[in-house]
Amino acid sequence: MGQAFKRLLLAAIAAAGLTTAEASAQQVSQTPRHGGSIEIGTVYLTLAPLSWDPRDWGWKFNHDTGQFYEQLFAADLSKSEGRGGNHKFVADAWLPADAIRGELAEKWEWQDDPLAVVVTLRKGVMFPEKPGVMASRELTADDVVFAFDRVNTSPQNARGFFDYIDKMYARDKHTLVIQMNRYHSEWNYRFGYGHYSGIVPREVIEAGATNWKNANGTGPFMLADVVQGNSNVYVRNPVYWGSEEIDGKDYKLPFLDKVVFRFIKDEATWITALRTAKLDILESVRWQNVESLKKSSPALKWRRWLGQAGIFLSMDVNTKPFDDVRVRRALNMAVNKREIVDAYYNGHAELFAYPQHPDFGGYFQSLQEMPASVKELFDYNPQKAKALLAEAGYPNGFTFKTQVCSCFPDHMELLPLVAGYLARVGVKVEIQPMEPGAYFAALSSRKMTPGYFFSIGHSNPTTTIARNFRSGSPWNPSGWADPEFDAKITEMYAIRDEAKRQEHVRAMTVEMLDKAPYIWLPTPYAHTAWWPWVKNYNGELRAGAVRPGPIYARIWVDQDLKKKLGY
Q1: Which of 222, 416, 522, 543 could anchor a disulfide with 75, C-beta 3.0 to 4.6 Å?
Q2: Quick check: is 508 in a domain?
């Protein structure tokens, strides 16, 4: 090794914060290997499983069961940034059109008369044996129809979620026909890789789907143990059908023998667990903890990602004074949002990333591209705010109540900051902290205070519009109800050409930003951290709707590197 190269290598090691020994240890063979286990603090590490049955329509179902219940479609992880592609695979419920692969579906094609998608299932996909529940057998199209019909007829079925599907039926053992009464742009998300599209066999339902001990699917792992509030344990499915091509060679999946989800309520505890390598991966690290971890554990690998939920103070537009758009716009101008980015988040946030997300490609428009009427909502202008309040009949301001959940530490810190800005223009906020049960019950029963400090996931470019602003949506805290806007949502879903749909969505987004039913607040960055023995991983979080299973199936552990690093 030449001296010049040595100097460059040492400089690179120093820049990365590694000791020479650590850097040397990382130069271990990258050949995939089977075996080993990993412990993960997922993005939902404070929240234990809500349900094991998709009929309950629990939004987190996919996250906990996607290791063993597979779906028709999943993310094409070969197109991730970590594998040389263009996609982050961080969004909580969106896969770009060019990044979807068949999972249980081998291929699919449209037919126009009648309008339908014809899906050919993979042959030889097996359910493993589950003593007391079912014998090992092959997946068939009847399994998909049964799973869909059961979820679709649930009393918890979200309004209109599948109403564009006339019927789903098995043409033969491996051919599925989804016949539609109209085109719906979310067709592949809703029944293909969505929150409620895991294929649960009839035998599991008959044994009792709510009991985790009966769970059994075709996925890369099997659910082996659940310790409520502590862990989910998944072990290798010995009859799993999938494989992964790496450097021209095909490897049977999964690589790992075991995956453990840890549930940890206290932030200091989960940070310590990462630092001491009791966690191999911590999927969400607040920016406040990043520098200290980089100093104490320089071997950790990192990826920064922009939050997948919007934070805002919702204003009930059906009550005074929030029925007046001038008041809503005034309160936006009264909050110094750029100062929040700089002073509260220390620069680790974006001023403008909701209701659309920058990762959504052509659906997203930057603040610089917005009309002046939208831009001014993100400029601090207390003088104009006071003038608008006076014009609306509130020259001396007013007082309103706002509920906030104690379950969101950021919200408990942010709301008093927002209230401080509003006080400067004469508007007083009475803050009502609430425990999670009461807080979410207030939303579901529409018994919120006029203000409601909230955070909603983006999901995908079209759901974010409908969820926030469609009449009657349970996730619409402002109570926005406009038949003309509802008609635009219906039109949005019917547009087959994506470029035209993107244009339509951009226009709708501008309209709702302008009408300001929320005080729009910055979106913070988060970080994912993992130890370098975790291979074939680059911080991907979701391969479908909140579903990480296919990501974990492709991870392997470099045991030699782990030992060389002293663990």
Answers
A1: 543
A2: yes
pLDDT at 351 over 50: yes
Q: Are residues 499 and 477 in the same domain?
A: yes
Query: 237 and 283 in one domain?
Result: yes
Secondary structure (3-state) at 262: strand
Same domain for 147 and 167, yes or no, is yes
**Is there a single domain that holds both residue 483 and residue 512?**
yes
132 lies in some domain: yes
Closest by alpha carbon to 91, among 500, 562, 545, 552? 545
Whose structure tokens read 């951009």?
A: 506
Instruction: Verify that 415 and 316 share a domain, yes or no.
Output: yes
Residue 201 clears pLDDT 60, i.e. is over it: yes
pLDDT attached to residue 9 = 34
Read off the pLDDT of residues 487-497 as tens digits, 9 standing for 90 and up. Answer: 999 999 999 99
pLDDT tens for each residue of 287-339: 899 999 999 999 999 999 999 999 999 999 999 999 999 999 999 999 999 99
535 touches 561 (CB < 8 A): no
According to the model, what pLDDT value does residue 409 have?
Answer: 81
Give yes or no for residue 190 having a pLDDT over 90.
Answer: yes
pTM, entire model: 0.90
Radius of gyration of the chain (CA): 25
Cα–Cα dist 218/224, whole Å: 14
Res. 31: pLDDT tops 80: yes
199 and 222 in a common domain: yes
- Work out the mean pLDDT of the chain and round it to a whole number: 93
Which CATH number covers residue 116? 3.40.190.10
The CA distance from 46 to 350, in Å, is: 25
Residues 351 and 372 in one domain: yes
Provide the b/e sequence for 124-161 (b: ≥16 CB within 10 Å): ebebbebeebbeeeebbbebbbbbbebbbeeeeeeeeb
Residue 479 lies inside a defined structural domain of this protein: yes
For residue 171, the enclosing domain spans 26-287+531-564
Average pLDDT value for residue range 120-138: 98
Q: What is the percent of the chain with per-residue pLDDT over 90, rounded to a whole number?
A: 89
CATH number, position 396 = 3.10.105.10
Residue-wise pLDDT for 430-442, tens only, equals 999 999 889 999 9
Please enumerate, as own/partner, the contacts of 329-332 that have beta carbons within 8 Å and a separation of 24 or more: 329/377, 329/388, 329/516, 330/384, 330/385, 330/386, 330/388, 330/389, 330/392, 330/425, 331/385, 331/422, 331/427, 331/516, 331/519, 332/377, 332/378, 332/516, 332/519, 332/520
| 337, 519 Cβ separation under 8 angstroms | no
Buried b (16+ CB within 10 A) or exposed e, 299-334: bbbebebbbbbbbbbbbbbeeebbebebbbbbbbbb
Round to whole Å and give the CA distance between 125 and 490. Answer: 37
Q: In this structure, are 381 and 327 located in the same domain?
A: yes
